[in-house]
Each structure stands twice: as structure tokens, then as C-alpha cells.
From TrEMBL, chain B:
InterPro entries: Cys_rich_dom
Domain Cysteine-rich: 3-82, 134-218
Protein name (database record): (Fe-S)-binding protein
GO MF term (any one): oxidoreductase activity
Pfam family, any one: CCG
One Gene Ontology cellular component annotation held by this UniProt entry: cytosol
Length: 476, 257
């Protein structure tokens, strides 16, 4: 066991995992916006989930109280995280599991690779997990000669397509069924060459392939939705039953979990298990909820390892405003209501965490300088805050992080000049009169230089009025 | 009632008609409007762009300017949002606790126009006349930050001659978002395109809202696309009377958009 929570909290290391994009958000978004198929897939998928979710949320008379309870429990967890994690470690160990502490992605990957190697296997089955994508575990396993097989249908599509997930819950939301058929034909071992693009046929093909893999692979890797400190119980919720297979069939189970996923008591689960399915898939209850506590002789995995991951979370925790991002239960409701996400899709965010939560979580995990464009990837419309089942004030967080972002030098100078003028009414009035000169920039601003040309590429500027309000008022 | 007008820098500079209409409307309802000297900008642009420290003097100026007044109104949900949700935060982060508490006090007396009319002055029929087909866009800050809910619609329903048509997907952001419209111009434009499509689909002659900023965005898009739909601030509709229409028949504009 390694104890790595020492010293100042650090951010997630570079060169490993998927928290940083290669392009800025505006550049990546431009490509996504130019893809009409992607826009259609996304628009359709998010509108469908939105409507379904709104319907089942409206059935719950105490939804607002549940949200408040979820938020309060998470705030309490973050306030006494070290104590809860130690309690969790005690209980898991007492129940026959082994707990490992990983300060960052590199440590976590090394721990998992060593554990798999020790079993003598060269293949693992995986339950969909954000955190293993965050740390780039699949790449680390492959580099060590171990083949990871994703068993969630959408995740499998992404893996076989050598693609990246673009939605927390529906990783292949950017693919339609014709594209999925092509991917299966190209990359799925033993696939029927007569495959059609009927959803049922595609699902049956995946099922055949996955059944064989489940039955012949003795090691599984999972994430966790929740971990109960008082009992040492881990919980995974899912829809397809692949998770249940991975969590029960293999001999060895390795679970990687972000430290913020712990909850104090079993009772707390009742809040989250009501919030999560309605906010995420729009179901009253998720089809599969698997829970396990350590190992049970003769039943299920006989070896259980829990890897507790920091990877920048302590640094997030240290920021009083920023820490609410750690409340997230990864329901993806904020993605589904976000007008920006709906148009750009998840890849534009460059991180495994897309959408509004990604815009506030990724920059905090990596340090804002490494994801400086993400806090600006929002019109601050507030739809995410209204939708979030644990009441994360994402607009407040975005503004908070913008303040920490490195600013372009020209912009800083302009903002300083503007602030100075606005604090000197005579100068301010002179600047107002100067807007009339903007007629010189061409008809309705079409001759403006960058970055203001970003506005005038698609929108006219108003004609400056003959008189400002304060001139009119003075002349009354 | 004596009401202080917080004009907002945008309305003052580019959309004075919305501000003049606010004055005309409140005076017609029998109230005294004052325009406190020395007001400039609430600092929202600085805060939302990531320059909170530079917003501190602007917050201080705003608080000093408006503290003497019991009731303050702005024809903008977004700027009222800045006063209510950002000023105290900015002051506290700068370590000025006294300013923060004064900012909170001013925020408690500051109202968006439709809130002032319905909640404080208790009117929904303001005696307006506006014989046009109109659709209403609930701007994000009005809708979500303040929950002004159906107040603007209740006010519009009482306007004589006005044919109010519902805007499809009304709660979707128009894509303005201040610096967002410039820093993420492509995404902003994609959002605007959908908003314009919905506005045009209503067959309305006029699209109204409680924020000059969002109207500037929607209006800029309508103008660029050659649409005949005009954008008119809610205050201008509520300030219009039969008298203005007579002017219209003589060939002058009813309201300047
Ligand atoms: S931030 Fe809230 S809405 Fe978004 S994924 Fe997390 S819990 Fe869900």
C-alpha cells in the first residue's frame, strides 16, 4: 500500500490521460460546427433525453428537496474527506479488499498494471468508467501488453472505432447506426459479414462478442459511482447488465475511484439513487445497481482491489468556490441542456469531461492555464445550474475560473482602459460620443478588425443613436 | 414613488430609446424618476471576462451612486443580475467587507423593470397601446437568475392592440453571453441561427425582450439576414400609447428599434 497524500496538493500531470485537448475550445468547436451530421445526431439525442428526463423529474414532488439534500451531503463529504476515506479503507480492508492510494494518473496506472500482471492475464474486461479514461488507463494497459475490452455498448463502439467518447453517458452520441455498422464490420472480431444497421441486429452482434469475452476473461476493471464509508460498500449503476457481468464473473476485480465519490452512510445512497437515474437517463430507476463489500468466499470475485485516485482533486478541494465541482455525480444533465454542448458536441472540450461540468472540472484538475479556453465555453445562460441534481452553480464557477485564466495582453490593456474610463464619468461620456465614430468602421461595423470581427461576421452592429441617454436627460 | 434609474451603459450609449421609454412609462404612471449622476457601468463585462479586480472601483462607484435611493430600476435583467449576484462577491474577494454589505443592501433595492411594475408598483395594465404582432424572448438572466417568470408576458397581455404570439423553444439562449459572442463567435452564431429561425417562424413583426444586449444580438442577426422583423425593448412597448400611433399614421416611426 502506498500513502501518497503528502505535501501541497498538485494538479493532474501532463503527458498522461485525457484532461487536456490539443486545440482551444473555439478552434475545436469550429470543426464540430462544420459537421452537419454531428449537429443532427446531437440535437436529436439531447432533445430526446431532455424531454424524457423532464417528464420523470416532474413526477417527483420533493425533487427540489432531494437536490438540496444531495448538495448538502456532498458538501459534508468534502468538509471531512480524509476522515471518510480512512473509514472507507478500514471497512474495505476488513471485508477482505485491498486499498491502494494513487496521487495521480501515473501512480494509478502503475498500480493497476502491476495488479493485472500479478494475475498472469493479458486481457481485462472493463465497465464504463470516466475515471479510467481520465487517467488513460487503456493506453497504459496496452503499453504493458494487456488488452482492455470495453463492455458498455457505446463505449465498445468508441473503442472499436478508435474514437473518443463525446458524452458522459452516451459516449457514442455522435455516431448514428449506419456508422456503427461500419465500425463493427471493420473492427469486431468474428462479426457476421451480413450485419445490417437495425438496432436489434447491432445489439445482438455486440452481445455475442461480449458474452464470449465475459466468459473467458478472469480480470475486470471498473469505476464506482459511490462508496459507502460506514460499510465499505462500492456501488455501480448501469443500464445494460454488462457491468453486473464484469463485477460478478471474474476472479479479480480492480476498481478505480476518484476520492470524492465516497458518501458517509448507506442511508445517503437513497438520495443519490433517486437523483441520478431521473437526471441522467430519464429513468425512474436505473436497470442495474450492483453493490459489493470486499469479497465473499465462493461468490463473485475472490480478489478485490480499490484504487483511490487524487489526480488534482486535492487542489480542487483547496479552492472554496471551485470545490463544488467535486459534488458531480456524472449524470450528464448539464450536457443535455447546454446550448453550447448541443452544437459543438463533446470532443470540442478536449477532455473526457465535456459540457458545462467539463468546462469547470477539467481546468481545475489540470490548473486553469492548461485549459484556459474552457471557462469561456459558455454563454452563462444558467441552464446547467437549473438542471444539476446536486445544485452545482456552474455559471458562478465559470466566472470564478475566468478570473484565474491567463488573459491575452491586448485584451488586458483594453479592459484596464475601459475600467479606468468607466470610473471617470467625463472620460466615459467622451468615449460614448466616440461610438459615433464607429460609423467610420463601415456600414454597421462590418469593417471592424479582429477580435470584434467575430461579432460582425454574422451580426450587424446597431447604428449609434444621435444622442446618448444622458445627453437627452441633460437637455430635458 | 421616487425611483432611481440605473440606465446601464449599453442602453445609455446605444439604446437610449429603451431608457427614455422607461422614464416616460414610470412618469406616466405617476412616479418621479431621477437619474443619479456619476453612474457608468456595473462592471459585469469585467467580471464575466475574468477581470474581477478591475471591477472593484466600478462596484464601489455603483454602490456610492445608488445607495441614497430606496428603489432602483434598470431596463435590463442581465445588469440587475450583476448587481444582485456579482457585486457583493467581487467586493468580498477584494477584502472589502463593508462594500460587500452595502452592495447587498443596494441589490435588495434594485429591480428589473417587469419586477418593479408587477411586484413593487402592483400594475400589469400600464395603459399601453401597441397594435402589432409581437413575440417575446425571455432572456436567460431574467428567466433563470431572477425568475421574472411570466411577469413580462402578463404586462404584454394587457397592452391594447398587441397580438402576442408564443416563441418556440423560447427558453433557449440566443447565444449572446457578452464576451462569448466574440470569443466563441462560431458557436454563438449557431445558437443565434436557431433563435432567428424560431423568431421568424412566429410571423411576428416585432421581437421583444427585457435586455438590450440580447436584443442587440438578435437584432444584429435579423438585420444581417435581411429580415423585416424589428427588435423593440419591452419598455418601449409598455411606454407606447395611442398618441404614438397617430404619429405612425402620419408616416413616422412608432418606436425606434
Ligand atoms: S455537474 Fe451536475 S448536472 Fe452536470 S454531470 Fe455533474 S451532477 Fe450532473
Amino acid at each position: 500500500m502506498t500513502r501518497a497524500f503528502l505535501g501541497m496538493p498538485t494538479t493532474a500531470p501532463r503527458g498522461v490521460g485525457h484532461l487536456r485537448g490539443e486545440q482551444t475550445f473555439p478552434a475545436a468547436a469550429r470543426q464540430a460546427l462544420a459537421d452537419p451530421q454531428l449537429r443532427r445526431n446531437l440535437g436529436h439525442a439531447t432533445a430526446t433525453i431532455r424531454a424524457k428526463s423532464a417528464g420523470v423529474i416532474a413526477e417527483v414532488p420533493d425533487w427540489e428537496q432531494l437536490r438540496a439534500a444531495g448538495s448538502a451531503i456532498k458538501a459534508d463529504v468534502l468538509a471531512r474527506l480524509p476522515e471518510l476515506l480512512e473509514q472507507l479503507e478500514d471497512r474495505v480492508s476488513a471485508a477482505g479488499g485491498v486499498v491502494h492510494w494513487a496521487a495521480d494518473a501515473n501512480e494509478a496506472n502503475a498500480i493497476v498494471v502491476d495488479l493485472v500482471r500479478a494475475t498472469g492475464n493479458d486481457r481485462v474486461i472493463k465497465v464504463k468508467s470516466m475515471v479510467t479514461q481520465e487517467i488513460g488507463l487503456n493506453e497504459a494497459l496496452e503499453a504493458a501488453g494487456i488488452a482492455p475490452v470495453e463492455t458498455d455498448l457505446a463505449e465498445l463502439i468508441v473503442q472499436l472505432g478508435e474514437d473518443r467518447p463525446s458524452h458522459i453517458l452516451v459516449p457514442a452520441i455522435h455516431r448514428n447506426r449506419a456508422e456503427i455498422r461500419e465500425i463493427f464490420l471493420r473492427a469486431m472480431p468474428g462479426v457476421d459479414p451480413g450485419l445490417t444497421d437495425e438496432p436489434a441486429v447491432l445489439a445482438a452482434a455486440a452481445r455475442r462478442f461480449l458474452r464470449q469475452t465475459f466468459l473467458s476473461t478472469p480480470v475486470a476493471v471498473s469505476g464506482a459511482n459511490f462508496a459507502v464509508a460506514e460499510t465499505g460498500t462500492l456501488a455501480v449503476v448501469e443500464s445494460e447488465g454488462n457491468g453486473r457481468m464484469c463485477l460478478t464473473l471474474p476472479r479479480t476485480l480492480i476498481t478505480v475511484m476518484g476520492v470524492e465519490k465516497v458518501v458517509p452512510t448507506w442511508r445517503d445512497l437513497e438520495v443519490f439513487l433517486q437523483l441520478l437515474p431521473r437526471a441522467s437517463t430519464g429513468e425512474r430507476m436505473n436497470p442495474y445497481t450492483s453493490m459489493w463489500t470486499g469479497v465473499s468466499p465462493g461468490d463473485g470475485p475472490q480478489e478485490f482491489h480499490l484504487v483511490l485516485l487524487d489526480n488534482g482533486r486535492s487542489a480542487v478541494l483547496a479552492d472554496e468556490v471551485g470545490r463544488q465541482a467535486l459534488h458531480c455525480i456524472r449524470c450528464s444533465a448539464c450536457l443535455n441542456v447546454c446550448p453550447v454542448y448541443e452544437r459543438t458536441g463533446g470532443h470540442a472540450y478536449g477532455s473526457v469531461y465535456p459540457g458545462p461540468i467539463g468546462a469547470v472540472l477539467s481546468p481545475q484538475l489540470t490548473g486553469v492555464a492548461d485549459n484556459a479556453s474552457l471557462p469561456y465555453a459558455s454563454s452563462l445562460c444558467g441552464a446547467c445550474y437549473d438542471a444539476c441534481p446536486v445544485k452545482i452553480n456552474i455559471p458562478e464557477l465559470l466566472v470564478h475560473l475566468r478570473d484565474q485564466a491567463p488573459h491575452p495582453r491586448g485584451e488586458s490593456a483594453a479592459m484596464a482602459a475601459a475600467a479606468y474610463a468607466m470610473d471617470h464619468p467625463a472620460l466615459y461620456a467622451a468615449a460614448q460620443r466616440a461610438t459615433r465614430l464607429s460609423r467610420l468602421t463601415g456600414r454597421r461595423g462590418r469593417g471592424l478588425p479582429p477580435p470584434l470581427s467575430g461579432w460582425t461576421a454574422s451580426r450587424d452592429l446597431p447604428e449609434p443613436p444621435a444622442q446618448t441617454f444622458r445627453q437627452w436627460w441633460a437637455s430635458r | 414613488m421616487r425611483i432611481a434609474l440605473f440606465v446601464t451603459c449599453l442602453a445609455d450609449t446605444l439604446f437610449p430609446e429603451a431608457a427614455k421609454a422607461t422614464v416616460r412609462l414610470l412618469e406616466r404612471l405617476g412616479h418621479e424618476v431621477v437619474f443619479p449622476d456619476g453612474q457608468t457601468c456595473c462592471g459585469q463585462m469585467h467580471v464575466n471576462t475574468g477581470y474581477q479586480a478591475q471591477a472593484v472601483p466600478l462596484v464601489r462607484r455603483h454602490v456610492r451612486t445608488f445607495d441614497p435611493f430606496d428603489v432602483i430600476v434598470a431596463p435590463s435583467g442581465s445588469c440587475v443580475g450583476s448587481v444582485r449576484h456579482q457585486h457583493a462577491v467581487v467586493a468580498r474577494r477584494a477584502g472589502d467587507v463593508r462594500l460587500a454589505s452595502r452592495a447587498e443592501s443596494v441589490a435588495g433595492r434594485t429591480f428589473e423593470l417587469s419586477e418593479l411594475l408587477v411586484d413593487v408598483l402592483g400594475v400589469t395594465d400600464v395603459g399601453a397601446f401597441f397594435p402589432h404582432r409581437v413575440t417575446y424572448h425571455p432572456t436567460c438572466h431574467s428567466l433563470r437568475m431572477h425568475g421574472v417568470a411570466d411577469r413580462p408576458v402578463r404586462l404584454l397581455r394587457e397592452v391594447r392592440g398587441l397580438d402576442l404570439v408564443e416563441l418556440p423553444a423560447a427558453d433557449q439562449c440566443c447565444g449572446f453571453g457578452g464576451t462569448f459572442a466574440v470569443k466563441n463567435a462560431d458557436t454563438s452564431t449557431a445558437m443565434l441561427a436557431d433563435k432567428l429561425r424560431h423568431v421568424v417562424s412566429t410571423g411576428a413583426e416585432v421581437c421583444t425582450a427585457g435586455d438590450a444586449s440580447c436584443l442587440m444580438h438578435i437584432g444584429g442577426g435579423l438585420s444581417r439576414s435581411g429580415s423585416a422583423v424589428r427588435t423593440v425593448h419591452l419598455a418601449e412597448i409598455l411606454a407606447s400609447t395611442e398618441h404614438d400611433t397617430v404619429a405612425d399614421e402620419r408616416g413616422e416611426q412608432v418606436v425606434r428599434s
